[in-house]
Amino acid sequence: MARRFEQSFKMLLGRSTKKLAFIALGISxxxxxxxxxxxxxxxxxxxxxxxxxxxxxxxxxRRILSISSVVVATAAMVELVLFRPPFSLFLMVPSITSLVIxxxxxxxxxxxxxxxxxxxxxxxxxERAVVGSLVLLFGLFIVKYVSKRLAYGVDPFFLFGSFVExxxxxxxxxxxxxxxxxxxxxxxxxxFRINGDPPTVVIVSNVHPGPFKNVSGAKLVRMLxxxxxxxxxxxxxxxxxxxxxxxxxxVAEVEKLVDRIASAxxxxxxxxxxxxGISPFTIEKGDVKITGFSLSGCPPLILLSRRQxxxxxxxxxxxxxxxxxxxxxxxxxxxxxxEVYWDSKVADDLxxxxxxxxxxxxxxxxxxxxxxxxxxxxxxxEIGPLGMKxxxxxxxxxxxxxxxxxxxxxxxxxxxxLEKAARDAGxxxxxxxxxxxxxxxxxxxxxxxxxxxxxxxxxxxxxxFVSALKSSRLNISEREVEFLTLRVxxxxxxxxxxxxxxxxxxxxxxxxxxxxxxxxxALAISILF
Length: 529
Known about the structure:
Number of helices: 18
Oligomer: single chain
Radius of gyration: 27 Å
Largest sheet: 5 strands, mixed
C-alpha cells in the first residue's frame, strides 16, 4: 500500500495529464482540417454536453473540455489507423464517454445517458446504430457487474469516482467509503505542555493525518492549529506510528479527536517532568538513524529516520516487535528518496541503536520559534498551515535542535542542507522532520504530489530555518514541562479496510484488462453497426 495515494496523485494531477489534453485538442482540430469535416467538433460538443449533464464537484468546464478532447482524439486516431472515413466509428464516442462518466460520478446512473442520447440521434442514420448503442450499454452493465464481483463486492467504479470527486471538489463520498470499511478502536496520542509566552503543546499522534487533501484525517493538523491556537497555545505536531490504516474515517471523527485534545488541556492527570532527561543524541546503525531529545524528565522523543530506504509510515506491527521502547517513537517522515521497506534487518538495526542510548543526564533548557506558512509557501501547495516549528535544546554542554515542517515528506538534499546550516550555527545534534500532513497532497497548478523542497526553494527554507534557530536560542530557558498519554476511542480505517484497499490495488491490472476488453468490444460493434 506504500505510496498508493501518492502515485495516484502523480497520475491524476501531474503536468502530463494537461499536456495530453492539449495534444488531444490539437489532434481533433488537425484532423478536422486535414480530413475536411466538422464532424469531430460535433463529437466534441456531444461529449462535452454529456459530461456537463453529469457534472459534479469534480467536473469543471476546463476538465470537461480536456476529457472531451481526449475522447474525440482517441476515436479519430482509431479511424485513421483502421483507414476508416470520419464518423464511421461514431459509437466509440458514447462508449468512451459513458465509461468516463461511470468512473467519475460515484453512485450515479448518468453513464447511461450518452447511449440513450446516441440512440436517439443515430436513429436518423440507421436502426442498426440504435441497436448498437443499446448493445454497448448492456455491455457496460456487464462490465460494472463483473468488476464488483472481482472487487469482493465493492464497486471499484464507485470507489475511484468518489476518490476523484473528493480530490477535486468538496464531497464526502470517499469518506462514506472509509466509514463503511472503518473499525472502532482506541488510538493513542502523547502530549507535552511547555510553559512560556505563549505556552506550547507538543502532540505525537498515532492517528495518521491522511488520506488526502480535504478528506477526513487530512484536516487534522489544520483543525488542531485553529482550535489550540484559539486557546492560546503554540502547536507542534509529530506523526508517531502507523499509516493509512490509522486514517480517521470521517471529518466528524477528526472533530471528536480535536475536541478531546482541547478538553485534555484543562483536565487533571498531567505528569510534571521535573526530573533530569537524557542528553540529545544521534545514533546510526545500518539503515537506521535515531535522534533523541528530552524535553525534560518525561519520555524522550525518538525521531526515526532512514539512511538508505525511504522514511514513510512506521508500521504498527514493526513497532510491536520492539520490546521496552525507551521513549516515544516519532516518524521523522523526512526522506522520500529510496524504496519503502520495513524488514527484520531494519528492526535489528533499530534495536541495536536503542541499546546504545546515552546515560548522561541533565535538566534541559528549551527555546522555540515559528516560521509562518505564508513566509515559506503562501499557496500552501507544499507546506501546510503550521509552517515551520523550531526547537533549541541546551543540555549541559550539548546544544541540540529540531525543526518540524508541516508537509508530507521531504527531499533528502533539502533536509541535509538544513542539518548542515544548524551544525554551522553550533548545534551538535540536529534533526529535521515533517508532520506527514496529507492536506497538501495533490494540488493546483498541475504539480501533482509534492514533497518539501521540491518547489519551495531550499535556499528559502535554509534562510528561514537559520533565522528561527537564532530566535529559539535567544529565548532558551528552563521551563516547566508536563506530559499526558491520551487514548481516544474513534473510527479509523483499520487493518481490514486497508487490506481491502490493497487487494483492490492488486487487481488494478485485471480491471484495466476488463475495460480494455470492453473498448475492443465497442470497436467491434462500431464496425459492425
